[in-house]
Design a protein that fits this description.
The complex is a heterodimer of chains A (349) and B (193). In chain A, the strands form four sheets. Chain A has a two-stranded antiparallel sheet. A two-stranded antiparallel ribbon of chain A has the order 3-4. In chain A, helix 4 runs antiparallel to helix 5. Chain A has 349 residues and is mostly helical. Chain A has eleven helices and eight strands. Chain B is an alpha+beta fold. Helix content of chain B is 61%, strand content 20%. Chain B is globular, with a radius of gyration of 19 Å. Classes of the chains: A mainly alpha (349), B alpha+beta (193).
Chain lengths: 349, 193
């Protein structure tokens, strides 16, 4: 069962890579994204293929109007131009090779990346740059990243969400925070957190984490019975139940071998990867609150029951949003980075 | 034969002993600083007083030089010495604001320390769980020894502060080099005043 799933995941990843590289007009920084989410930056070679470049940074170069930053250990040459003569400037690192003149955006260009030591050897697109020096300055080279081929669209929705959060949802969240005393807020949080048990239980089973599924059940029973319908989180006082890692459908897909795909900013919902978007639908289907809507369509009480849950999740989301975007250089990138790092941790638990 | 086995065993014991001692020194330093911050937050009457009082402790425990350098990444080498100083100054302001924005007078977290690890010589990672305003957060402090143990990164719920800024700095560098980095830093500092 596991092997076909992995094969499907690989196929999806390949398609995502193709889609990512096929949208040059939508994302000018496309060449730097990792279509397969391997954390390695990429540069285009022969228009259609991509090869990883180990270290992006030192040498700015232009390719089809886009700036490339390549490691000083590699050089860039165009297929229709002779390789440039080395003429290092004082600002360049020791051993750096100069970058060729910017090619015209209209010209079909082949970019070849090769080791400096192989400068006289015929260019080989499959050759990889030498390994970067062990320098702590680039400690965060392999941080979590996600392909963002529809960045202009995402930025549009990010702007929309930002205005929505700022002028409508944040004031609502502030009222919730002010009107309800902390004890009541905690009670509401606990009740709805307890109700999410089916989602956690089913996903633990799907991930073959049977011990955790058992612990989740134990926690649900303890909090529902001794905690008066989940109002009090009695499980926090039991060491074996106090810190069970939370899971969701997106994490299940990750366990099965599915990659993130690409980054999507949904209106109102906010950031998600393609995988987690499908996962979100799964979480919704496993939520007892969603079942209310399906079992009793149109009933007014269903809205009354779900509103406190919306308010408490809104409160948490606003706090997370503020934490990610405040004091940032680019709130969009800050949120994207926070999202993907946080998901990486959630899946690895 | 016995001697041949004894030497590696002794060496191993010595090295692990040194590593353990390093971890303990880093942990004690972190605990002392967190304790200082909690004491200040407990006694603060208003937000401005809190920020002023907590600043020296943060300046002492956080290594802003390393944080700035790694956040900017390899592009750091393209900055002139003056630009590097300016970038560090601005980034320090930004980090201090990021930290102090999380404090509310009278409300302080209860921190539970977990066993630390040493990913490389001179580096220690200390995982903690903080309970703050009813929510539980996993926080990992990355510390390094550079004339005393100092924090070089804080990872909250898997989100590394330095990695997050690195993503943003990379984009600025790709757009306009060192000038764009400094401009973006100036803008961020002005905007979050």
């Amino acid at each position: 069962m596991h092997t076909p799933l992995v094969a499907i995941a690989r196929k999806i990843t390949a398609w995502v890579a193709i889609l990512g590289s096929g949208l040059p007009l939508l994302d000018p920084s496309r060449v730097f994204a990792s279509p397969d989410n391997s954390n390695a930056p990429y540069v285009m070679v022969k228009e259609s293929t991509v090869i990883p470049v180990k270290n992006v940074s030192d040498q700015p170069a232009k390719h089809r109007g886009e700036t490339l930053y390549l490691n000083s250990a590699v050089r860039v040459a165009t297929s229709h131009a002779a390789p440039p003569k080395p003429s290092p400037t004082p600002s360049q690192d020791k051993g750096a090779t100069p970058v060729p003149k910017t090619p015209s955006a209209a010209t079909a260009v082949t970019v070849t990346v090769r080791k400096k030591s192989d400068a006289n050897v015929a260019s080989d697109p499959t050759s990889k740059p030498s390994a970067p020096k062990d320098d702590d300055i680039d400690d965060y080279r392999n941080r979590a990243v996600i392909a963002d081929p529809i960045q202009p669209v995402n930025r549009g929705f990010f702007w929309f969400n930002h205005q929505l959060y700022r002028y409508i949802l944040k004031p609502v969240s502030r009222v919730y925070d002010t009107v309800l005393p902390p004890l009541v807020r905690t009670g509401i949080y606990n009740v709805f957190d307890n109700l999410e048990y089916p989602d956690r239980f089913v996903n633990d089973l799907l991930q073959a984490r049977f011990t955790r599924a058992g612990q989740e059940t134990e926690k649900f029973v303890v909090n529902t019975v001794a905690g008066v319908g989940g109002l009090m989180k009695i499980s926090d006082k039991i060491p074996s139940l106090s810190d069970i890692p939370r899971t969701d459908t997106g994490a299940t897909f990750a366990t099965w071998g599915f990659d993130h795909g690409f980054y999507i900013v949904w209106p109102v919902l906010g950031p998600k990867s393609l995988r987690d978007t499908v996962g979100f639908a799964g979480d919704y289907a496993l939520s007892p609150l969603a079942w209310c809507f399906f079992l009793f369509p149109g009933a007014v009480w269903t809205t009354a029951v779900t509103t406190p849950d919306s308010a408490r999740s809104l409160h948490g989301r606003m706090n997370a949003y503020d934490a990610a975007t405040q004091h940032s250089l680019d709130p969009y990138l800050a949120l994207r980075s926070s999202y993907i790092q946080n998901r990486k941790k959630a899946v690895s638990k | 034969m016995k001697c041949r086995l004894l030497f590696p065993a002794l060496l191993f014991a010595l090295l692990t002993g040194i590593a353990h001692a390093s971890n303990e020194t880093a942990e004690n330093r972190l605990k002392a600083s967190v304790g200082d911050v909690v004491t200040i937050v407990k006694g603060a009457t208003n937000r401005d007083a809190l920020i002023t009082a907590v600043k020296p402790t943060l300046e002492n425990i956080l290594n802003f030089g390393i944080m700035t350098r790694r956040s900017i990444g390899p592009g750091w080498k393209q900055l002139t010495t003056d630009q590097q100083k300016e970038a560090t100054r601005l980034f320090t302001t930004l980090i201090l604001r990021t930290y102090t924005a999380k404090f509310t007078p009278g409300e302080y977290p209860s921190v539970e320390y977990k066993p630390s690890s040493s990913p490389a010589p001179g580096r220690v990672e200390i995982p903690t769980t903080s309970l703050y305003k009813g929510s539980r957060y996993d926080v990992v402090y990355r510390m390094e020894e550079s004339g005393g143990w100092q924090i070089t990164d804080v990872v909250i719920e898997g989100v590394s502060l330095v990695a997050n800024y690195r993503t943003q700095f990379d984009a600025e560098f790709k757009q306009g080099g060192s000038e764009a980095v400094l401009k973006a830093l100036h803008h961020a500092v002005m905007e979050t005043k």
